[in-house]
């Protein structure tokens, strides 16, 4: 991680769960971290969990990744105040429970999932890439994907969520090719966790004997892929809790 010391990392969905854990890990590793979140006050409160030095490296900007104007404004602000983006962690993601693909009137919640999980990734990556390209930075884009972006479990209804994560899997490969064709050495990595203890997971799955990961496990994976030598690109990293059935 030494080559990233003092460089700028942007983390979407930074207010809780995996995003919060990644923000803290990157700040502790010496990076200047910009947390993008709708609940910006919660991202700012993460400073209280850091050392004084690391807390000074953490900043937060209000941003709803379903709104292109929010994304463009946030990245413009990052360019002006911090010089640009060196690392992007596309973590923001949602799922909608209580409906299936055939539920009448389901268009709005399903569209929210696609706008967050797919278009949010595309638009944030676009803005980060433009910043990296302008400054000739060999940066890194990391997608927080899911194991259901590779196979759909048969024991529950996940409605459109797996489709959104399959899209992230395809986007990662498409970005790799586009970055190569552009002649850059910018890396792109997909990290696909199994079940993680976050606010999005129902409480009954976070108790008892259900195998589950902690957000810090995913933050450790982010540090690992960022810490690889410039010649190495970890394209896909799958992380499951021991004993998981999915």
From TrEMBL:
Task: Please state which protein family the record places this protein in.
Answer: Belongs to the short-chain dehydrogenases/reductases (SDR) family.
Does the record carry ATP-binding as a key word? Answer: no
Protein name as catalogued: Dehydrogenase
Q: Which UniProt keywords apply?
A: Oxidoreductase
Q: Give the PROSITE patterns listed for this entry.
A: ADH_SHORT
Q: Which Pfam families does the UniProt entry name for this protein? A: adh_short
User: PANTHER family, per this entry?
Assistant: DEHYDROGENASE/REDUCTASE SDR FAMILY MEMBER 11 (PTHR43115), DEHYDROGENASE_REDUCTASE SDR FAMILY MEMBER 11 (PTHR43115:SF4)
Q: Which organism is it from?
A: Anopheles coluzzii
**Do you know which SUPFAM superfamilies this protein is assigned to?**
NAD(P)-binding Rossmann-fold domains (SSF51735)
Q: Which Gene3D superfamilies match?
A: NAD(P)-binding Rossmann-like Domain
Q: A GO molecular-function term, please? A: oxidoreductase activity, acting on the CH-OH group of donors, NAD or NADP as acceptor
Query: What InterPro entries is this protein classified in?
Result: NAD(P)-bd_dom_sf, Sc_DH/Rdtase_CS, SDR_fam
């Amino acid at each position: 991680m030494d080559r990233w010391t003092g460089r700028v990392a942007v983390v979407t969905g930074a207010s809780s769960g995996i995003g919060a854990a990644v923000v803290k890990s990157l700040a502790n590793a010496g990076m200047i971290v910009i947390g993008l979140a709708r609940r910006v006050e919660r991202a700012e409160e993460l400073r209280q969990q850091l050392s004084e030095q690391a807390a000074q490296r953490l900043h937060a900007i209000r941003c709803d990744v379903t709104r292109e104007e929010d994304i463009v404004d946030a990245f413009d602000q990052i360019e002006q105040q911090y010089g640009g983006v060196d690392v992007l962690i596309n973590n923001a993601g949602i799922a909608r429970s209580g409906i299936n693909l055939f539920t009448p009137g389901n268009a709005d919640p399903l569209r929210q999932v696609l706008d967050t999980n797919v278009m949010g990734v595309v638009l944030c990556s676009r803005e980060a890439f433009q910043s990296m390209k302008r400054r000739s930075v060999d940066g890194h884009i990391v997608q927080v994907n899911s194991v259901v972006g590779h196979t759909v479990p048969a024991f529950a209804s996940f409605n459109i969520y797996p489709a959104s994560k399959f899209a992230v899997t395809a986007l990662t490969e498409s970005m790799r090719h586009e970055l190569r064709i552009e002649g850059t050495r910018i890396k792109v990595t997909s990290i696909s966790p199994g079940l993680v203890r976050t606010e999005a997971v129902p409480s009954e799955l976070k108790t008892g004997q259900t195998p589950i990961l902690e957000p810090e496990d995913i933050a450790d994976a982010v540090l690992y892929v960022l810490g690889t030598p410039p010649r190495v690109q970890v394209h896909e990293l799958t992380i499951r809790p021991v004993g998981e059935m999915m």
